[in-house]
Every structure is written in structure tokens, then in C-alpha cells.
Amino acid sequence: MTKQELTENIKRKKSFLCVGLDTDIQKIPEHLKSEDDPIFAFNKAIIDATADYSIAYKPNVAFYESRGVQGLVSLYKTVDYLRQNYKDQLIIADAKRGDIGNTSEMYAAAFLKEMGADAITVAPYMGEDSVTPFLKYEGKWVILLALTSNKGAMDFQFERNAENQGFLFETVIKKSQQWGGTDENMMYVVGATQGELFEQVRKHAPEHFFLVPGVGAQGGSLRDVCRYGMNASCGLIVNSSRAIIYADNTGNFAVRAREEALSVQREMQQYLREKGVI
């Protein structure tokens, strides 16, 4: 999916919502557990209920790998279902890979070729040769971890660089743009809890898309994300996982997920209008 296609989809749907498929067998409704593939049954229902209001889905790979071969089957079935039925959705493999070059080449082939995801999250801290193999796939996106929303972000991401002219997360953003990544194939993860720091990130990546976790259950403010992070073409993909997919754990779970997705979409529509994107 190209940047233009993604931007047009945001304007058409008046939404920049990504639904995170962090599907935990312990949290899905009990009645689904008798299905042949409970995880896929849950994902399918969530997707069908929320696709009108979202522009992306982000399966967190760890939730599937933790279930072994059957979990990977569920993951592949989910990606295939999206690809066949909802072609306008950006599919993000939240895998957070990144290793020496030949290993990254295998990771890139696994997720961007064999699985068919449109994008993959990548940890950049092993440097250029750990990231560039992911950039070789035309029409695919690399989403680099930059400024995350977890408590441990303070451990390293706010370390001053050698010249004391910025933080480590700023160095990552600036340096990565020398590796062949552009705003047409590279995005950055910026946590919703970072608030005003979005302005600082935007200085270094004015035209790039940001994948923004942390809205909803993690307490990030969508208003602040849009106030400080939105650019003229939106430039945001805001993820919500638990607040949508686990809004209810009864037979009504899909209806409640749809209601939550609609609520987020309506708020996003308001901010898109305020910023003049639509």
C-alpha cells in the first residue's frame, strides 16, 4: 500500500484508526472456545465488526507465537482473511524484529513475503544493516521504534547523544533517514503518552507517518496526539487494542467492539476537520 493510497483511505473513511489484534485465548468470550480455531473466530468477528471505521489492523505476533504452530495458523488465517475481504486495510505485523543482516533478511521474507503483511515493526538499535533488509520490499513499510509509551522508555530513549544536542530517540529518527528509508516506506512508532514531544519528533520527520500505540487502555490522549502530531495529510495511524477488542466478553462482544470503534472514529473525524485534512 502506497502512502497516497493510505492517505486517500484516511480521508475517505474519516478515520486513522488501527485495531490491534492482541488476541489472548484467556480473554476471549467463553462461547468461542469450542470453535476449531477460537483465535481466528474471535479475530474474524472483530474485523467484520470494525472494518468500516478502521484503516489498519495490527496483529501482535507474540500473542500468536506463544501458542506454537496453532497460533501461527491463526495468524496466517487472519492475514489471509483481511487480504481477501478487506483489501483497503493496512496489515501491520507487530513483530519488533531486528538482527544482523542475514537474519533480518529472513525476518523480512517471513513477514513481508510469506505472510503478506504490508508493514512490520522493527527495533533499530543494531543499526543500519539490521534495518535495510526490510526496506528492499517495494510497496511495504518499515515501522521503526522511536519513542515508545512504556515506562522503560526512560531507560535509554532519553539519553543524551554524544554532542549533547538531543536525545537518543532523535538520533534514531535522524540517522535512520540516511539508510534509504523515506516517508514513502518508513514510519515511526511514537507512543500516545508522549504528548507535547510529538512536536519534537515532527521536527525530524515532518512528512512521515507515525504509528501511535497507547490510546485507550494505556491512557494516552487522542486530542494531544492530534494537536501535536498531525500534519497536513494526517500522518498518524493510532492504534487501539484492548479498549476495542475486549470491550465486552459476552456474546455481544462484536457489537460492543463496533460501538467502541465508531466512537473513536467520530472523534478522529472531528480532529481531521479541525486540522483541515478533510
Walk me through what this model shows:
The structure is a single chain. The chain has 278 residues and is an alpha/beta fold. The chain has helices spanning 3-13, 38-50, 61-65, 68-85, 101-114, 128-131, 153-156, 168-176, 197-204, 222-229, 242-245, 253-274; strands spanning 17-21, 56-59, 90-97, 119-122, 141-147, 186-190, 210-212, 236-240. It has 12 helices and 8 strands. The chain has an 8-stranded parallel beta barrel, surrounded by 6 helices. β6 (186-190), α9 (197-204) and β7 (210-212) form a beta-alpha-beta unit. α10 packs parallel to α12. The protein is globular.
Low-confidence stretches: none
Mean pLDDT: 95
Strand content: 5-15%
- What is the number of helical segments per DSSP (H or I, 4+ residues)? 12
List the secondary-structure elements in sequence, H or E: HEHEHHEHEHEHHEHEHEHH
**Spatial order of strands in the largest sheet:** 1-2-3-4-5-6-7-8
**How many strands?**
8
Q: What class do helices, strands and sheet pairing give? A: alpha/beta
Query: Kindly, what is the distance between the CA atoms of the first and last residues, rounded to a whole number of angstroms?
Result: 21 Å
Cα radius of gyration in angstroms: 18 Å
**Helix content class:** 40-55%
Main sheet? 8 strands, parallel, barrel
The backbone outline, from C-alpha atoms, is globular
